[in-house]
Design brief:
Blueprint lengths: L2 H12 L4 E5 L14 E4 L3 E4 L9 H22 L6 H21 L6 E4 L4 E6 L2 E6 L4 E11 L3 E14 L2 E9 L8 H17 L14 H8 L6 H16 L8 H32 L4 H4 L11 H7 L5
Antiparallel strand pairs: 1-7, 2-3, 3-4, 4-5, 5-6, 6-8, 7-8, 8-9
């Protein structure tokens, strides 16, 4: 089933909501935008977050900080000469970190959507089943809609979806959303489609117009716009330094700077533990990709597409 057929079915059911069919070989007229959904941007593949479990590691971060607090209290007791209950405190501190850490890292994270530049393919895992689509000729459905709530009023959203087929079963297809639609516009989704087009056709590095570039400056700039929680402290420190330089060191510090800096400093250990746990869980989850995918992500791996393998088996694809 083609994406255009799905558009017609959707319009028959839901009416003429704003939507557009995007193609890999047709520019949208927008500049490439990154929508804070990139998990990895490498020379050979681009990984897009599929949503879900974005807060993985938060429990470890919160309880882990509690464990550190218990250890500090035990240290104070030891320095004061009181060793009663120290062993219990150490065991409690270890349990507050180890138990949630093991629980969160051993549960698999949802695998990302992979865009493979070497073979010009898209891979998607759905409940352990591999779905794929060749990039050449791929189509995407971008649709805009409004969600209305009793307290928020109307909120404009826009989705961007591609069609992928299960490996070995070309009639089994899925529409896969490239990121969450909330708060986005049709123009923004077109810009993200241009980002994908620029990566697949002119990447891995490109400029603000989507043309190939030997420098990674523009790509790094766009990716750095999404700051992790552990980066808030460094960002606030940089802002304070800029104010100090602008005011020549005189009356540059405002009360809001102090409050925000101390707040980021207070939450930094928890944020660090959260990101550390998330990264461990992400690395463990990578092993769930089948070998037929992982070998094609290697610099010297096979360049045959999964579609070509299906045709060799006599499938009508």
């Amino acid at each position: 089933m083609a994406v255009s057929d799905l558009i017609q079915q959707a319009r028959t059911r839901f009416g003429q909501s704003p939507s557009v069919l995007l193609r890999a070989d047709e520019p949208t007229g927008e500049k490439p935008w990154e929508m804070f959904v990139t998990d990895e941007h490498t020379e050979h593949y681009l990984a897009i977050k599929t949503g879900g479990d974005s807060d993985r590691g938060m429990l470890t971060g919160a309880l882990g900080v509690g464990g550190v607090t218990v250890l500090l209290m035990c240290s104070i007791l030891i320095l004061s000469g009181n060793t009663d209950g120290i062993l219990t405190g150490v065991i409690l501190a270890a349990a507050l970190f180890v138990i949630p850490f093991l629980w969160e890292t051993r549960r698999p994270l949802p695998l990302p959507i992979l865009f493979n530049r070497r073979t010009r393919e898209v891979y998607f895992d759905h409940n352990g089943k591999l779905y794929h689509s060749p990039w050449d000729g791929i189509q995407a459905l971008a649709g805009e809609f409004v969600m209305v709530g009793p307290h928020t009023g109307g909120m404009r959203n826009a989705s961007l979806e591609i069609l992928v087929c299960r490996l070995g079963e070309p009639d089994n297809a899925l529409l896969v959303s490239l990121g969450l639609p909330m708060g986005k516009t049709l123009q923004m989704q077109k810009g993200f489609w241009e980002w994908l087009r620029a990566y697949m056709d002119n990447g891995p590095w490109f400029d603000e117009h989507g043309q190939h570039s030997a420098s990674d400056a523009y790509v790094k700039k766009m990716l750095s716009a999404h700051t992790n929680p552990t980066g808030f402290l460094a960002y606030r420190r940089q802002r304070i330094a800029e104010k100090k330089a602008a005011n020549e060191g005189k009356n540059y510090l405002e009360w809001t700077d102090t409050v925000l800096y101390l707040g980021h400093l207070l939450f930094f250990p928890m944020n660090w533990l959260q990101e550390f746990t998330y990264n461990i869980a992400k690395r463990r989850s990578r092993n769930r990709w089948p070998r037929i995918v992982t070998e094609r992500l290697q610099p010297n791996g096979p360049t045959t597409r999964l579609l070509d393998l299906e045709r060799e088996r006599g499938l009508d694809v």
